[in-house]
Description:
Low-confidence stretches: 1-7
Number of domains: 1
Radius of gyration: 21 Å
Strand content: under 5%
Number of helices: 9
Oligomer: single chain
Distance between the termini: 43 Å
Strand order of the largest sheet: 1-2
Amino acid sequence: xxxxxxPRVDATMQVAPKQAAETASEHGSxxxxxxxxxxxxxxxxxxxxxxxxxxxxxxGLGYATASESAWLNGGSPTEGYLSGVDVGPFAATMNSxxxxxxxxxxxxxxxxxxxxxxxxxxxxxVSAAAGTVMLMLxxxxxxxxxxxxxxxxxxxxxxxxxxxxLIYALVLILLAAxxxxxxWGLGRRWAGVGFxxxxxxxx
Length: 203
């Protein structure tokens, strides 16, 4: 007579698809090995989104930022976007922040920190929180709820609520929730560091 022991499933463990299908009904949701790899690819892609924005604004790669407007050439990472806000109840506030040195530094530090954390797979909870705040501020600046600008022109908002900033924020939260840094990242090693082990919010 043989005894089969049920596999232990916890929040930091991925299991094979067949095993997941057999245990999901008893243990609830599980992260399969396939899903963990997809989450890792999504994490890396999101990291590159933030890092590309940082590099483009730092060096002026000629896409969203012209070379002469690069931060290293004296340009402002926030001026172009915030000075162009012409819709919503926060337009005047956003305009007043355009080009402020502290706003530039905070924005660039956020892009670099969030992008690096996602790429390495460490500190995903902190990066999800910081990224969500940044993206929601950008959502407020875009104000997709409005149909018309202050000049009376159509905003061409494709959706009054659900748009890319909100989707990106939800992706960041999901990546932190499923421990996406454990696969193809340094998540497990980071979680084993002493001060991180005693401060779970740093994972």
